[in-house]
Structure formats: structure tokens, C-alpha cells
Amino acid sequence: MSESKPNILLIYTGGTIGMIRDFKTGALKAFDFKTLLDKIPELQLLDCNIETVSNKPIDSSNMNPEYWVEIAELIETNYDKFDGFVVLHGSDTMSYTASALSFMLDNLAKPVVFTGSQLPIGDLRTDAKENLITSIQVASLQKDGIPVIQEVCLYFEYKLYRGNRTTKMNAEHFEAFASPNYNELAVSGVHLKVNKKYLFNPHVNKPFKVHKNLNSNIALIKLFPGITKGVIQSVFDTPNLRAVILETYGAGNCTTESWFINLLEDRITNGVHIVNITQCSKGSVIMGHYETSNSLKEIGVISGKDITTEAAVTKLMHLLGCNISSEIFKTTYEKPLRGEMT
Ligand code: ASP
What we know:
With 342 residues, the protein is α/β, with parallel strands linked by helices. It has helices spanning 33-38, 65-78, 94-104, 128-140, 229-236, 258-269, 291-298, 309-321, 326-334; strands at 7-14, 19-21, 28-30, 49-58, 84-88, 105-106, 112-115, 142-143, 146-147, 152-156, 159-162, 167-168, 177-178, 186-188, 192-194, 209-210, 218-222, 243-248, 273-278, 302-303. The chain has 2 domains: 7-210, Rossmann fold; 218-333, Rossmann fold (3-Layer(aba) Sandwich). Aspartic acid is lined by residues 14-16, 59-61, 90-92, 116, 118.
């Protein structure tokens, strides 16, 4: 480790970036991380020291909260030793993991950059090299010895986004992610241009803390015209259910049929938290804007405002895990914690 150059920890969790094709089936599967670095000798040219660590490589479709805790613990254990962290992750659930980590890592004052790729790093036309190299450069950015980026972000195809604002929106194009309701933090062209005014300013005077309790007793219901009472009821009858996210229409609107509103009201009275987010990828829930969202407001449904589904889910798991009291749960959820809502 050097005193003068930034020290970066590269955490490999799996995903296409480090996969090879199975001879027999042709399917992509994870392979040994050490050989990944052999494939990119360019890393030696970067103006930083890189150390690598890997837990069990997985396809990110198998990601879960226990694994999020493992990633958070790797960052916690190495927090003082390194100036920045780059997490290689499958793109399928990368926005969920980046969102979860943003809530779990409290008073983060160093960069945690998630990246991956659409094609394996060994492929001729791979997007992995640029994604990886620029992510390391982003994590190494410093001004007067202080990291420029002090939040969890996601770098993909020339753009750096706030992690908890992203969503995977394309399974084929190299530009796989979008941040519909928040500007890019940086754009990589001939120069790496950082949009300073969009960066998150943490409470750096408070000590770094990792929250490891996540409660998964939640459900997500996407409404559609014709959804039956039986389906909604069966979700609400799930044992140990603590909260439900409703993906509603437009600015947070839903059916005004009395069986629906009565069911929600009954469950809220019995302590289940209900969060309203929009099915639209851009824009915000504004309860009360239309008559079709008024009842939701009146019965105490929580507004998810312009949060992504990924951040809504992980924020809910995080706040339930923090045992926030019922009285302040709604107001706490409706406030931005890590810049995840406007
Ligand atoms: N299925 C892969 C994963 O999410 C896709 C990718 O890495 O892009 O792990």
C-alpha cells in the first residue's frame, strides 16, 4: 500500500463481467476472479494501488439481503485501509444492491462504485474494460486528499449515477441503466466531467456506521386494471407481513372501489405500512392531485414520491430493520435518507 496514490479495493461478487461460456450448454457461468485480472493488464497503468477480494461469485439474480450484508462487511472491515471501493456485480440486480448498500452504509465519506458489463471481459467486443477502468478512476478521484465522490454510485457505459436512483432498463444495449429522476453525477468522454452540484454531501463529522438488519417481510404489488380482490387479499394475508409497496398508476392513482380502499385501511389500522410508488419510470407520486389518490392519502398511505422500485424496496427493508416506531415511520420514509427521493 502506498501513502501517495489512492488505495482502491476491488470487490468481485459475480455477474457477466467475470463469466465464461459453458462448453456443453453455451450458458454463461461465473469463473475464478483471479483470472479476471489477468485479462486486463491495463489496470497496472492506473495511478492507484488496487487490491482485490471476492466472496462467492454469483449471477446477481441469486442476490439476497444476506449477501448485501457480506458486501457491507467487506467495506466495513477495509474502510480505514482504502480510499475507495469498486464493486463488480451482475447488472440484473445491481440497482437493488446499490440502493440497499446506500442505506446500509451510514455517514459514508468514501466512494463505493458499482459496475459490471453486458458482455464478459474476455469477449472481443466487451464493454467491461471501459466500465471497470473508469469506475476505478472515479473511485480514485481526490481533491486535497479528500475523495470527490462520497456516496454509493453506479458506473455504466460512460455515465456515473447515484446508485439508489438507478434502474436496469435494457437487457441488450451497453447503455443498460437509467436514472430517470436524477441527473448523472459524472459523464466520461474525452474528460471525466463531474457534476459537482449533484453529488451527495454526507455528515462527514459523524462516524461511519453499517446497518446490518434488513427485514424482508414485505411485498410489492403492481396494480393493473382488473386485478382481483382475491389476489390483493392473499398478499395481505401473508404471515408476518410488515409492509406493502403498491405500484400505482401515473401520479399515484388507483381504483376507488370500496373493497380495495377498505382492505388497505383495515391493514394500515393493524400496523402494516403501505407505500405508494408510481409505475411510470419518470415523475412523482402526488397523492391528492387526482380524486383517485385522495382516499390513499386520507387512510395514511406513505408517499414514495419519485423513488425507484429498487430503492423503495430496500429502504423499506432498511427502515423496518431499524425498528422505527409506527408513529414516525411514515414521516421517516417520506424524507430522503441518501438522496434517493426529491
Ligand atoms: N445475469 C447477469 C447477472 O446479473 C447479467 C449481468 O451481469 O449483466 O449476474
